[in-house]
Amino acid sequence: MFAYLVRRLFAVIVMLGVVVLVTLSIFFAIPKLTGTDVATLFVGKQADPASIEGIRQKLELDDPILVQFWHFVSGLFAGRDYTGGGTTEHCPAPCFGYSFRNEQLIWPVLTDRLPVTLSLVSGAAVLWLLGGVATGVVSALKRGTLWDRSAMTVALAGVSLPIYFTGLLSLAVFHYWLGWVDGEYTDFAEDPGAWFSGLMMPWITLAFLYAAMYARLTRATMLEVLGEDYIRTARAKGLREPVVIGKHAMRSTMTPVLTILGMDLGALIGGAILTESTFNLQGLGRAAVVAIGERDLPMILGVTLFTSTAVIVANLVVDLLYAVIDPRVRLS
Amino acid sequence: MTAPLHDTGAAETAAVDVTAGAPAKAIEGRSPWRIAWVRLRRDRIALAGGVVVLLLVLVAVFAPLIVSLLGHPPNEYHEERIDALFGTPKGAWGGIDKDFLFGVEPVNGRDVFSRVVYGARVSLLVAFLSAVVAVVVGTVLGVVAGYFGGWIDTVVSRVMDVLLSFPQLLFIIALVSVMPNSLLGLSGSGVRMAVLILVIGFFGWPYVGRIVRGQTLSLREREYVEAARSLGAGRGYILFRELLPNLVAPITVYATLMIPTNVLNEAALSFLGAGVKSPTSSWGQMLSKAVTTYESDPMFMIIPGLAIFVTVLAFNLFGDGVRDALDPKGSR
């Protein structure tokens, strides 16, 4: 168990290193190969040569990519000084750098945006897990009935609808025409009621898409599990049906659901980009899209690294949970 | 509640009935593809999906002809159809009438019908070609990893893990944003489409790769592969003549189900401003404009949204049908 953990943690660190390296490469190597100047990208074409040179020094653009990589990584743990254009700025650890658009530190922006995204994702996850898994299980048990067919039709429609379309539709209907819910995000500490009302539509829209996927997955897995020998054995030895389904079948059914949940949660924490864009929520994903539009490399690096960490950690947690849920899995 | 047991029983009796009920017919050998085709032809829902897919392809191919018959040139401004004060289309339902079948775009009055028809070209071309990229790369690397094992397998598997834990949408937007406007003799929307195809395909191959690798791992231990090897068959022969034909079914299923995902990806990227740019039209781009106009002109949001929905749903229905038809365990 301990050796397994150490090995997995080591893999996590290597992976994060690769993510940083690739992100840096996208912004430094590709423009170099295609003949565009990164410093001009950052300050705009009209800037005077002196400020371009200042950015060049600050970004350490003339250093080889591995040196830049090293400076970035050491900055994460020890903080870092930026010198260039006659000024020096100190960036305390964990240093993700300065935004080159508005001179703000990246790290406080990330921690500032995180609550919005977390509120969105956690609320939606509760809804889609309850709704999706329950629908899937019931559909599997009542296979071929009217309930099953209509539930699966709705689920198929759900996975075929883009979220920015359902989001806009629900905004138009429930916010604009009926006026039932708020269209704005309010901080929880400020006004819990408004927080709830403002997140209602994003939650439902996001949860609808994922509930549809989870219902399909749960139904398919449950049907497969119900055909297994150990379920027949459980029935043969006289267990009551609720025990067979709830205790024996559910455990195996939840394994793939959990795998997907880990990946989805991790990806959504940094990447609820579409939902946040549709509902104009100022979360991490929105920050990334704006940063990409402005070619704000430190911001993009920050969000990407944050997201990748979330994905990788979520996967690790899921793998550890396997051992708890499925007795056949042993960590070694 | 012994549904699965009953089901297997029913399937067996049905199978017996088929052979017993048609004594007059001579027994004929049918290839697995023939059986799949027969099953697919009986699946009416899948066929309906297939017909819609075919229609969409025809619409995309003959877009100029259709538009010249039923619409106006996609970039022709019709300001006389726009309310000068609000920028909204004149008339009910977003300006839908016999002249403008799907109404007109807010502010500049372009023909929505023509833009939706031309949007099908971008959507289907990107979705199809990126699926081809993903399938080719995924199959080659998956087979190689699964067949040769050892360090090759380790490298390919780790690369797949890293790619799957990347925040893909972020990376794709970032990549698109640093691409220059002309590349390899292409320019403008051509570059954007080429980049979209390559990056969507690139991030899609690990999904195919994992499935192909797993299948190859189990297939290479089969007796027929061993028999071929003991008869002195070379690696190339075993890979292409023995293994690949048995991988075609899972790859076909995955490829058909990958196209709708890619349609959604392309639309999402266009929605976020990382897809093709105006004047080339795409559905996601129309929806991103609708974010600001949905309150005054909901039809301009609903029509491109429905276009995406119908396309994705049709591909999903067809893909599900293909999967059921090719499934050797299927009883239909």
Structure write-up:
By secondary structure, chain A is mainly α. In chain A, 75% of the residues lie in helices and 3% in strands. Chain A is built from 13 helices and two strands. Chain A has helices at residues 2-34, 38-43, 49-59, 65-78, 106-141, 146-160, 163-177, 192-226, 229-236, 241-271, 273-279, 284-293, 297-325, and strands spanning 80-84, 87-91. A two-stranded antiparallel ribbon of chain A has the order 1-2. In chain A, a hairpin with a 2-residue loop joins β1 (80-84) and β2. Chain A is globular and about 80 Å long. Chain A starts with a helix and ends in a 7-residue tail after the last helix. The relative contact order of chain A is 0.12. With 332 residues, chain B is an all-alpha fold. Chain B has one domain (47-326): MetI-like (MetI-like fold). Helix content of chain B is 70%, strand content 1%. Chain B is built from twelve helices and two strands; from the N terminus they run αααααααββααααα. Chain B has helices at residues 3-21, 32-42, 44-61, 63-70, 112-148, 150-164, 168-178, 189-219, 223-230, 235-271, 283-293, 299-326; strands at 182-183, 186-187. In chain B, strands 1-2 form a two-stranded antiparallel sheet. In chain B, β1 and β2 form a beta hairpin. In chain B, α10 (235-271) runs antiparallel to α12. Mean pLDDT of chain B is 79; it is low at 1-22. The interface between A and B is large, with 58 and 51 residues.
